[in-house]
Design brief:
heterodimer; A: alpha+beta; four-stranded antiparallel sheet; 67% helix; globular; B: mainly alpha
Chain lengths: 281, 280
């Protein structure tokens, strides 16, 4: 536990983590501002089939903010935290002194991973909490109405209405699920971090995984591959199923399994590499 | 000078790997289409064009170009442009290259010409391979597509192009995609003069396409004002060449925008490279 506490202090003192979280918070607040100024009455698409009108309730803002940031900003933040772990230390030249202490290497890696995971969770929470806070200030604490475009036709408007507390509960579920979809990116960046001494390469590689995977996902004709890719359009929008009635849970378990498999492989490689790498910096 | 550069780049495994990867991609795409039901309708692009792959070999280049233009082609172009100067610096051979009695302007220019040649080749390579593989798999037939934007439940807008017409439109479309890649090319080249790490320049070039796409009104509400000025958003407009009549709205604007970006990036690259202290 000491190792974790030490890592935490070290990371918390470095401006990088706070700047990343701060920028996410500011961007989220700006998003609310822009929407409240220019398009509060327009329906915003959320995921593949959801649609919300912002000025009906402040609770719509977390949904809009999550769909906007899940494309790039959240994977980037997660890759920054995971990619900097070992490579950042190596770039500072302090890795070999760190490992000179009588602590097994796997514990060092576990401590670094735990702290990076905590910061990554914080990044997602910042987006959710800031958008919820600013949304409630701008549009008030009302019941959340989500239009289900999949089932809406010219004859029937399919929508689900959630009282504020129920909406918060579902938002909690959705947030937890969003976190799970980011784990493969996290594990991949962590793995790269043990291979390179340049944090930038590890961070770019982590973002690269999500881009590469998404690019493959969008190739017509490679649909057969989609369910097995680490990051897909349908996978990152699956959480919107929590905001339908009845809740759509198809595919959730499969996605979690796929994530778990990728995470297991990436972490195992990271551990194997870090346990025996010659540390030169 | 250009010949020397060309010979140098051509022999590097990176170049061949990039082309090999693109070829493997198109071949895998065709096999996968063939294996997973080529008789079904595929949606292509935002219009969308609805295409049945096994009706004509031309469907493969259309699908291949659509699925590479947003990531794989920008990546290939960034690799060629981003490696140009930074690759030399990464090898530590830049200062020896510049010690020769050649002006830096000419040196940068020959790097640019060679990288540009390879980038153009990469963009052409994808539809050409795809057409070849597609013709082998699905035959040389007229290309038929359903124009999803003009179709309704009561009316299906089918467009058919003879092989010659399809080839012509594909060529114009490829040229348009090429034009759309120039801002990325210039940005990666600019980064290549700024850094000694080729990887950073390549990642930066890809990063520009990503930033461009993230700041897109489709994903991020409120930034729609920026849409017409983003360097990479409208690269998919070439698909409108396959509507009847071809919808060319926005294309000229996008190509002019590319020229502006290219001019700015290249000027900065040149200005920086002329003054830079070369330490590697």
């Amino acid at each position: 536990m000491n190792v974790v506490a030490l890592e935490y202090t070290k990371q918390a003192r470095r401006p990088r983590g706070l700047i990343t979280l701060g920028v996410l918070g500011i961007l989220t607040a700006v998003l609310t501002l822009v929407i409240s100024v220019s398009r509060a009455t327009i329906a915003e698409r959320v995921g593949d089939f959801g649609s919300v009108v912002s000025n009906t309730s402040g609770l719509t803002m977390p949904l809009i903010a999550l769909s906007a940031t899940l494309l790039f900003l959240l994977p980037l933040a997660v890759a920054i935290f995971a990619g900097e772990t070992v490579a950042g230390e190596a770039a500072w030249g302090s890795l070999r002194y760190l490992l000179a202490r009588p602590v097994p290497r796997w514990r060092v890696l576990a401590a670094k991973a735990a702290v990076a995971a905590a910061f990554s969770i914080a990044a997602v929470l910042v987006v959710v909490v800031v958008s919820l806070g600013t949304g409630v200030i701008a549009f008030g604490w009302h019941a959340l109405t989500v239009l289900d475009l999949q089932h809406t036709s010219p004859f029937i408007v399919a929508s689900a209405r959630f009282p504020p507390l129920a909406a918060i509960g579902r938002l909690g579920l959705a947030t937890a699920f969003v976190l799970a979809t980011l784990t493969s990116t996290f594990a991949f960046a962590l793995m790269l971090s043990t291979f390179t001494v340049r944090p930038f390469s590890a961070v770019a590689g982590g973002v690269g995984l999500s881009l590469f995977s998404r690019a493959l996902d969008n190739v017509p004709g490679l649909h057969a591959l989609s369910p097995w890719l680490p990051v897909t359009d349908s996978g990152t929008t699956l959480w919107t199923g929590f905001f339908t009635r009845p809740m759509q849970t198809a595919g959730l378990a499969h996605l979690l399994e796929v994530q778990a498999a990728y995470v297991a492989v990436f972490l195992a490689v990271a551990l194997a590499r870090f346990a025996r790498a010659d540390i030169l910096s | 000078m250009i010949a020397v550069e060309f010979a140098k780049q051509w022999r590097r495994p990176r170049t061949l790997l990039t082309f090999a990867a693109l070829a493997v991609f198109t071949i895998a795409l065709t096999i996968s289409l063939d294996a997973s039901g080529a008789g079904r309708i595929e949606r292509v692009g935002d219009i969308p064009l609805l295409v049945v792959p096994d009706r004509s070999g031309f469907s493969v280049p259309v699908i291949a170009l659509s699925s590479t233009m947003k990531f794989f082609l920008p990546l290939a172009v960034s690799i060629f442009a981003g490696e140009s100067v930074a690759g030399e610096a990464g090898w530590g051979s830049l200062r020896y290259a510049l010690a020769g009695p050649v002006s830096r302007t000419r040196y940068l220019f020959s790097k640019l010409v060679v990288a540009l040649g390879f980038s153009v080749a990469a963009v052409v390579f994808v539809p050409v391979t795809a057409l070849a593989v597609g013709t082998i798999a699905f035959g040389w037939h007229p290309f038929t597509a359903i124009d999803g934007s003009s179709s309704s439940a009561l009316h299906t807008a089918v467009v058919t192009f003879g092989a010659g017409a399809a080839l012509g439109r594909l060529a114009v479309g490829t040229a348009y995609v090429m034009g759309g890649m120039t801002s990325i090319f210039a940005f990666a080249l600019l980064l290549s003069t700024l850094t000694t790490r080729p990887f950073a320049a390549v990642a930066g070039g890809v990063g520009l396409t990503i930033v461009s796409r993230v700041l897109n009104g489709d994903y991020l509400p409120g930034v729609s004002v920026l849409n017409p000025y983003m360097p990479n958003n409208d690269v998919d407009l070439w698909q409108h060449f396959f509507q009847q009549p071809a919808q060319t709205a926005g294309m000229v604007h996008f190509l002019l925008l590319q020229i502006v970006y290219v001019a700015v990036f290249l000027t900065i690259a040149w200005w920086w490279f002329m003054r830079k202290d070369i330490l590697t």
